[in-house]
Design goal:
about 40% helix
Length: about 55
């Protein structure tokens, strides 16, 4: 069985990190939002699986 890698909570970029040049998908904020969404999805999946893994003693 292949265990998925646990993601760490992303840290928002500093205000100075954004160049305001409309970088599209390469924007530090867009990267942060994608990482945050992936992290939240993984946490929700882990929470769901911990409730349904048969450990209801």
């Amino acid at each position: 069985m292949n265990t998925p890698q646990l993601l760490t909570a992303p840290v928002p970029p500093e205000d100075w990190a954004c160049c305001n040049s409309d970088c599209g998908d390469a924007c530090v904020w867009q990267i942060y939002y994608r990482e945050k969404a992936a992290y939240k999805a993984q946490q929700a999946q882990l929470a769901t699986s911990s409730h349904t893994d048969g450990n209801n003693s």
